[in-house]
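Internal tracking record. Fields below are filled automatically when a chain is submitted to the structure queue. Please do not edit lines marked as system-generated. If the sequence contains nonstandard residues, flag them in the REMARKS field before resubmitting.
Queue: standard
Priority: normal
Entity type: single polypeptide chain
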Amino acid sequence: MAQTNVTPVKFGIDLFSVRSSGWTAFQYLDYCAKFKVKVVHFSEIRFLGSLDEEHVRRVKAHADKHGIELEIGMRSICPTSKLFDPAQGTAEEQLTRLIKAGRAAGSKLVRAFLGSMADRTGDLPIEAHIENTVKVLRAVRSRAMDANLKIAIENHAGDMQGRELKMLIEEAGKDFVGACIDSGNPVWTLEDPHVTLETLHPYVLTSHVRDSQLWRVPEGVAVRWTRMGEGNVDIDSYLRKYLELCPGRAISMEIIVTGPRTFPVFDPKFWDGYRNVPAWQFSRFLAAADKGKPSPAPPKPADAAAQERTDLEASIQYTQRLLNL
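SYSTEM-GENERATED OUTPUT FOLLOWS
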């Protein structure tokens, strides 16, 4: 018997998946439209091409022709992060520009992030970076509310575990701040992606999805990002739980295929940036690694842009079959 009252899947593509293509915003939209997506996630300004309001309106009009909803984003808004670019103005100024562009694009959110794993081991603890990001967010609250959009903070490149991003959202104000939950980045913070989803699902505004492979090595744990269906974090179950826990939120492919990254968890010095990680949580990460098998780095492609598209399209096909789209 056919199911009824099921929320339709809002399937999308994050343009970072095809970051090397160098297309215009209009070309990116034409490419994504071939896969009948409902959302295209412009995670960085470079994919949009310009924040000029007239340009953004033209991009929105082109998206409307394809029946595509736009989500726009930027990079770090933490002024003390190693990834923050002060040449672009203060964090508040940068975020304000994106809020204005988001309104012109019809985006319901602006995606941003704190930083990367490098911010866990610098002069400041991660908690200080979180506090500084919260201050920036509180400073733009009225502008975001006036524009009728929210700020979606990503768990990005090993910067925060799910519980840390939850703390950031609650301290900034969950009335206008939520999560852009990424399924690949948790393994760069010693976290099982399922733990991240269990922690953040009440705050999720949108998502990035990719698969990961984990396995044990003599010095600790190796991880690498893979195409969908080629990892061992049970991405199928993750997606089904996401649909149940985050109905109506976008599932956007952010496919990044990498070589292994090793986390030397048996070196006491390594833990300087992770002393607040709960043991029960780390044990779930280890359990996933124990199930994994060594996964060598893929060969370096002759054409990076073409390989990115191949990886993305294989992942789209896998995910659309899985979700019966």
